[in-house]
Amino acid sequence: MNQAKNNRRQGTNKRSQRNPKQAPAEGQNGLSLRAEAARALVPILNARGSLASLDDSRVAPRDRALLREICYGVCRTLPRLEALASVLLKSSFKARDTDIQALLLVGIYQLLYLRIPAHAAVGETAGAARLLDKGWATRVLNGCLRRLQREASEMQAKVDRDPAVALLHPVWWLKALRQAWPNDWREIAIANNQAGPMTLRVNRRRTSQEAYLERLRENGIEARPCEHAPDGLTLETPCDVSALPGFAEGNVSVQDEAAQLAIELLGPALAPRPGAQVLDACSAPGGKTAHLLEAFDVSLQALDSDAERLQRVEGTLERLGLSAQLSAADAGEQDWWDGTPFDAILLDAPCSGSGVIRRHPDIKRLRRPDDIGQLAALQARLLDNLWQTLASGGTLVYATCSVLPEENSEQITAFLERTPDAEIDTPQGLAWGVESGAGRQLLPREHGHDGFFYARLKRK
Prior knowledge:
The structure is a single chain. This protein is α/β, with parallel strands linked by helices. It has 3 domains: 5-161, Orthogonal Bundle (N-utilizing Substance Protein B Homolog, Chain A); 201-254, Sun protein, domain 3 (Alpha-Beta Plaits, 2-Layer Sandwich); 257-459, Vaccinia Virus protein VP39 (Rossmann fold, 3-Layer(aba) Sandwich). It has helices spanning 14-18, 29-45, 64-76, 78-88, 98-113, 118-131, 137-159, 163-166, 171-180, 185-192, 209-218, 257-260, 262-270, 287-295, 307-320, 363-366, 369-387, 409-418, and strands at 199-202, 223-225, 232-235, 252-254, 276-281, 298-304, 325-328, 342-348, 390-400, 422-424, 434-436, 439-442, 452-459. Strands 5, 6, 7, 8, 9, 10, 11, 12 and 13 form a 9-stranded mixed beta sheet that branches. A 4-stranded antiparallel beta sheet has the order 2-3-1-4, covered by helices on one side. Helix 6 crosses helix 7 (137-159) and helix 9 (171-180) crosses helix 10 (185-192). The chain is globular and about 70 Å long.
C-alpha cells in the first residue's frame, strides 16, 4: 500500500506551500482542519495515495484525532457519501476541483456520522473552500449541505437501494466476497465497515497476559483476554500508546489477534530448538518479527524489500530490546542469502489486504480487480524462491491478511501441485478459523480479530 510521497500534499494552497508547518491562526482551526482533510483525501479519491501518508502537522494538536476520524471515516463510508453527493450536485465537479469534491464528502460525513453541531459542520466545511483558494465553492457547498440537513433520511433511503452503497463496498468487492464466501459475505462486509478494536501483544519475556491485564486495570484501562492468542489483550476503548503502562519500556505492543497466531503455527518447529535459523520474509513493520523473538530463542533474519519500512522493524526491535539481522532485499531473489538453509520461514506475503479493510478503509478505493491476479503471481514467485532456502525437514508458514481464495487456499493448492517435496502440515481441529484447502482462514469479526489466512508446509 505504499504510495509516492509527492502525492500526499496534492491540492495544497499557495499559502501552505510557502510555510507548510505554519499553525492556523486563532479562530481558523475549524476551517483549517476541514481544508486539510480535503487535501489528504484528494490523492485517495484519485487512487494515487493512501492514508498511510496522512500528515497532521498543519492542524492544531487538539484537532489531530478529529482529522484522522474524518479521513478514515470518509474512506470507510465512501460509496454512500459519493452516492449522496451525486444526488446533491446538479453536475459533477471538474477534475481540477477534486479538493472541493473531497470537502463536500467531509461535510456529508460530519452531518451523518459525527456528533458535530450542524452549523459547524456546514459553515466551517463551506468556509474551508476559501483556504483552498476556491471561494466560489462556498455557496455550492453551503447549499448542498443544508439540503442534506433537510432531506437526509429520504436521500439515504434512496441511495441505499443499491447494495454496494448500503454495504459501503464497490460492486466488484462484494462480488468477490460473495463468490468466495457465499454464506458469510454480508457479515464480512459489515465487519469491514467497523473500526477494528485495539489489541495488544504482551511481551512474554517481561510479563504475562494476566499480570499486564491487572496493570491496565490499575491504570483505569479496561481490557479482556483474546479468545485465541495467549499473549493478546483487547482494549474496551482504544487509547494512545503513551497511555499504556510500560509501552516505552517494551512490555507491550499493538498487534491484532489474528496476526499473533503466526507463532502458534511456528512454535512446534522452534520451541525445542534454541538457535534455530529463522527467516521472516516481508517482515515490515515488524510485529511478527518481534513476536517470534519474544517467544523463542532463535537466530532470526528479517527481510523486506522496502528499506524505509525496514527502519520501522529496527525501531520496534530497539524498543523491545530485541535483535535480528535486517536485510533490505527482494524475497523473490536470492542475492541476500548466504546459502545456510533456514529451519523455519515465515512468509507474510504481500496481498490485497481484504481481511484488514476496517483498519485500512482506503483499500476499497485503491484496489482494482486486476490487482488480485498480479498479487497472486507475486505470492507464487515468493513461495517458489523461498522454498529453495528452506532446510530439509524445515517448516514454512504462509500467511496473508486476505480473505480471497486466489491468494490463499488456491495459492497453496497450486504450490503443492508443482512442488513434490512439499507437504501439508497445517494442524487439524484448531480452535480458530475455518478449514480452507490446505490452510486455515480467519474471517474479520466485529469486536474481534482481523481476516487472516495461514498454511503450514513441511519440506520432506
